[in-house]
Every structure is written in structure tokens, then in C-alpha cells.
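Teaching assistant here, posting this on the class forum so everyone can see the example we discussed in section. The complex has two components, and the goal was to see what a joint structure prediction looks like when all of them are supplied at once.
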Amino acid sequence: MDEMHKPSRRAFLRGSAAVAAGTVAGAASAQSADPLITDVQDWASITGAGVDETPYGMPIEYESHVVRRNVEWLTASPISSINFTPIHALEGTITPQGCAFERHHSGAIEMKKDDYRLMINGLVDKPLVFTYADLERFPRENHVYFCECAANTGMEWAGAQLNGVQFTHGMIHNMEYTGVPLRALLNEAGLGAAGDLKDKWVYVEGADASSNGRSIPMEKALDDVLVTFKANGEALRMEHGYPVRLVVPGWEGNMWVKWIRRIEVSDTPTESREETSKYTDVLEDGTARKWTWVMDAKSVITSPSPQMPIEHGKGPLVISGLAWSGHGQITRVDVSKDGGITWETARLGKQGDTKALTRFYHDINWDGAPMLLQARAMDETGYVQPTKEQLRDVRGENSVYHNNCIQTWYVNAEGIAENVEVS
Amino acid sequence: MSKSPNILLPALGVTGIVLGGAYGTMTRGYKADEAEIARAQAQAAQAQLVEQRAMASDLKTQIAMVQDTAKAKIAELEARPAASASLTAPAPEREGAFGLGREALVEELAAWDVDVLPDGRGLPIGTGNALDGEELFADRCAACHGDFAEGVDNWPVLAGGFNTLADEDPVKTVGSYWPHLSTVYDYVYRSMPFGEAGTLSPDETYAIVAYILYSNDLIDDEFELSNKTLGSFEMPNKDGFVIDDRPEAEYAAWSAEPCMSNCKDEVTVTMRSVFLVNTPEDGGSESVINDATPEGLPSFTAAGASFIPEAEAQPKAAEEVAAVAAEEPVNEAAELIAAGDKVFKKCKACHAVGAGAKNKSGPQLNALMGRKMGSIEGFKYSKVFKAAAEEGRTWDATSLSEFLAKPKAYMKGTKMSFSGLKKDSDLEAISAYLASFSE
């Protein structure tokens, strides 16, 4: 069965080889004895791989399609580009580092821990330099947070564009970070020189050739920002900023500066390239919003979806999806099967952490009729995820960033899903 | 607070022992004569009954004891002040410092603290004008941004786009969009040129920034841009930004209890995905235009879909395709070229090869093997390639592999920003691939 399913997943996402397979998989009674049971299989007879065959384990070859993928024509060069997390094929909430999306402005760099330096300067009592080893001596914390690129779903402003939840919503990952609160480092340098902290900023900057830099208001810097060196229990991956990256919970991914080398306390935002010419949201009248840091509540059904057709036919169907909010916890997700006419409240896998992915499920008995699947998230502030129409009414279609619209999948009677827009 | 676990645990323990005993009796009799089994079972049952009666009486006593203990425990817990139920706590803070790290030295601060603020603070002393900048821009920037800052391929356009911000496709350039000139200096000085960041002097940076302003018709060619004039220079779109107003403009309106039923009368599909996305085995993706239209799709009401469309024509079954592919003879040379095709993905952003290939930000690569280095007419080579051309050096599998392994080491000063191929197998494959385009 696996062999039959595999090519269909990898064929065109709309490919319908799934249909034939579906009827087989759906059958609960067997016509003849299953040779997988009656014949002694190789794996039940000969021995398998020894320990240490893969000192660092990788997913089995049958999962080789579950990888990050880029869309080449979106950017000029893969060195300054983005790829997408295969969220259609993942479950639970934690994103394995090896398939968590990458966004580089000048490529991922290789820096040794020993070569790592972090400078804190500006309006501080004493400018300091920390080594990696120094950072490990500060009291540390563990938190799960989502990191979403501000441009996630950005293509969809102009309508349904790319057929796959990996490509519409895959600029997101969710990891458990280990790190030191930024306030501890600021405290170490002393904020006396900054005076009244109310209108102060910290400017954070990366060590790579792009020296990506962003300004963060002091209030956030002293709240929940972390200087992290581990994710999901192991060292950060090169592509995510090894050895040290900044984590700015609930705020757009561009601020999560990788290879962070400098933190400057300032009396003004720097107005760097990444916070003026990029990561600002053009409205319909040509003016632009700036400092749009928070990622508002959003949700999407990951399965079924274009890359995850229903292959089993009618009957029990698990609708699975993700919800998140930069304002705090997800409190509720509703699911519609008719394009937003009727909504039913989904079941949360477990109460999500604040500013972290929450898994939701809607378990139905599919009658085989076409569906227009949608999910709608609510967060602890009472905010309800908007429709595309609501967003466009306020912002027009040129914002690029911060598209948290309700996504629609049209699922046809064969179980094949497609990215669509509805009235 | 539930009491039951404390009581049930000992009780279940006893029951477990009893049942275990009975099961043991049964299994020992397995395959024995049936009458014997029945007799043995009756005896065992009788013995069990006696045993269980005694135990039941014991249990009652035990339950009473456990209940008493539990009551006492609850009373004790309730009497305690609200003691911490959990030991989790945020990282502790200190009044003073931990004494970690060391003081930054003046020369270290000077090396890293180079960001420039909107009012010009942080600018180094220096000056430059558009005339000087034109030549620098052609040499250092034009490969990606074009001679007139108009942008090559997908690389950013830096000039023009005025009065387009409210259009369907706004052209956001330095001139039309960027609110502060300090940002241009800051970005060019620290982050450009792409692949050679941090190599421009302050004077060169002022000159390049001046040329970008000139390309936008914002200064004349004699205007001296300097640390004295830059901070007060006003950009056309300086007032074009508002601070995030989502809380007022959106949050209040989008926080009402949402509709759950009969929220709309009818829903129709208005647009289908523009691109289907193929996800090949070896990674990446291929976007293919989707011909399907919303016509022929059902509409939806509270009663569900208006009709069930008939199944579309099925594409050739995937396993058949796979079977055909497997029958093709394995050809090592072809495989190597195919592998090279994959490696070439890393080069595609800047180089074209094959029929009709033109120069992009890198030269076209047809008939590369045997070609003199730096010899494509009309392509702006870096100095090191011009020198190689004069020396008459040529490309072959060896020189190409050495170059591609570490471009910046082999051709010091090359404009090519690629960091190099690490695997020998990739180097071999790319050579075979490029050699296959002999014309």
C-alpha cells in the first residue's frame, strides 16, 4: 500500500491517483489472506541495522518527501531567500529543526561557538562583551514559541496562488528554546545610563554579511525576549542562527536575529532597511504601516489539504490543523465544511502555550460530498481571525506582510483538495 | 481534591492477587481431561470463595483505615498556607550584576557600532558625489541592480516608482518608498555589495548613495553628500508611514463573538489556485499554471454542496509512470549530467546555460569548456577575470573544479557571491553538466 501511495503524494498535488488507492484503503474486510501477515517478511527474519549505523539519526527513506522546499521564482537568489516547512506532513506542535523553514538575507553562515561574541553597548553603564561560555552561566529558561515570517501567506493577498499548505503557510516553525532572558544581559550591562526606560529601544544586529538589524522597544526587550542557544533540546542548526539567536515571542520572524552579535540600547529606533523598506505594510492609499511587529491570531487546516488528499474514501476523517497567536494563547478554533456558512468548534489537542502553535482536531464522518474547509482561530484577547475580505477592506491587497486570513480548501468528492477563494 | 486514588490503590492490589491466583489455576489445567478440569475448577472456586470472604472482611477494615488516613491528610494539606504546588519559576534575577562578560574596548565598539540613526548620528566623516558614484556603482552594484539602478532579474529596483504606491503593483524604491536617507547609507556600508559586504570605504559609500539619489532625480551631479548633509536630507516618502494602528483599526472590530450558523446564504468558489505545485523527489518545487476555472464547481448552502461533480479525467497512474522509468537503461554519463543539472540549481539565479542563454548577473555558460576566461563580450568582469583573460587562461574541468570549490580563494576579488561546492561529487557533476553544452 505504501508503494502505491508514495508516488501519488509526490505527483502533482492535485493529482488524483489517490482515488483508486482510496477505495482499497477504505475497505475494512479482506477478500484473501494478507501476505504481509501470512508470509514471513524479510524484516521478521533477517536482522536489521546495528546501533551506531547512523550516529545522528535521520528520518527513514520513506519519509524523504517531508522536507523544506523553496519556490525558486519568488526570489532572485537562494542565498537571499526563504523556504517552507512541510507543515502538511507534520503532527503535534513541535517542528523538528531539520525541516523548519529557513530565511537568509546573505546565506547561512558557519560560526564556531568559540568564535562567538555578543556585545552590549549604547546607553548602558558599562559596555560588555560576552562569549558563548559566558551566556551559559546566566540562569536560563525553556519556552515553546512559534516563529512566523511576516510574509507567511503573503502571496495570497492577490488571491489563491500556490496549491499547498506548505507554500501558503509554511513560513512558520515552533520549537522549545533554551536561553537567557534578554533583560538579564541588559541588567548585567546596567540600564542606569538609559534613564527613563519608557521611550528607549534596543537595536539588535546579526553577525552575517547582511548584518540584519531591528529595533525593539525596551518594554518588549524587558518582557519575554530570549537570547537562545538551544532548540528542541539540541544546539541551534546553522540555518537558524547557530550558535546564538534572538527569540522575540509572538513577533515577526525577521526580528528573531540569527547569529546575534550586538545589542545597542538607544533613544530612538534605528530605522534600518529591514524596518523601513521591508517589513512595512503598504495600505490601499499608498501610505504604509510601520512597526507592525505582532503576528495576529491565525489558523489553517493542514490535513486534508492540497498535499494531503483524503485517500480513504467516505467514513471517519480526521481534520487536523494548527492555530497560533502572537498575543497569547489560542482559546478556540472553529471549523467550517461549507465555506463559512456553518461553524463547529474544534477540539484542541491540548491547551496551547502562549505564543506557541496549538494543534486542533475536528473528527468527522465524511459523507463523500465536496467540502469548502476553513478554520477560524480565537485568542485570549477575544480576537477572531478575519476573512480575506475583512483584511482587504482595511488594508487593500499590497501589504505583502501580516496576512492572517481564513484559508479555504475546496475538497472534491475524490478527496482532492485545492487552494481556492470563496465569495 | 479527590480522595479516591488513595483508597482504590490498596484495594485493587488485593483484587489483582486474587484474580491472578484464579487464572493460574485455570492455565495449569489447560489440555487436561475436561472432568478433571471441572473438578479442579470447582475446588479452586470453593477455596477462592472462602479466601475472598476473609479478604472482603479484611478489605473493609483496610478501606476504613485508608479513609481515615486520607481524611487526616486532606485536613493537614488544607491547614497549610497556600504552599507552592509547583516548583517552576522564571530565571532568577539579581539586584546587581553576575559579573559575567568583560568590558568592551573602544576599538571593538568602533568596529561594530557603525549603525547610522535617522538624524545622522553614527555617520563617519566623509564625502562623495554622483559622478564618483557612477563608476563605483557600475563596478560594484550594477551586476544586480543595473547600470541605472533599474534592477536586474528579480534583484531590487532602486530608482523610480514615484507615485505608484497606491497602484495595483507599487514600485517600492529608495526614491519612492524609503523614508530616511540614513537607512541607505547604513545598509550599503554594512551589508552591500551582496557577497562582499563591509568592503566599501565611507567616501565610496557616500558616492554610491549620491548616485542612487541622482538616479532618482533627487540631486544633481554636483551635490556633495557628506556626514554634514546626509542627516538633514529629506526623502520624498518621509511622511508616508503610520505607526501600527491595528489595535484601533482592526482589533476592536474583529473581537465580537463570531457567527456559528447561517452566516451566509450561499458560498461559491471565486478563484482557484493560480499555480499547481509539483514537489519532486529531489527537493524544491515546480509551479505549473492551473488551467481549471471555478466554473463547474458546486456552490454551497447550509444544506451542503449543490451537486457532486463527476470525477475528472484521471492522469496516468503514478505507478505506471514509475514502472516505465525503471525500464530505461542506466547510463552513468547521463546520470552524472542529470546530477549536474540538480547542482546547477545553485547557479541558476545568476547564470544561464542552454539554447538562447543570455548573460544574467553572471555570464552565460554555453561552450564553457575550452573557453578563455573572462571572454564573453559585453559582460562586466571583475578585475581578476580581466587579468585572467589577458593571461590567456582557459576553463577546463580542472580549473572549473578548483574555482567552484572555493571561488573567492581561486579568483580573489571575483564578483561571484557563491561560496563554493563542498562535495567532490557535485564538482564532478557540474563539470559534466556544463561540458554537455558544447555549443
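For the discussion questions: The CA atoms of residues 295 and 350 of chain A lie 21 Å apart. The radius of gyration of chain A is 23 Å. Think about how each of these relates to the inputs above.
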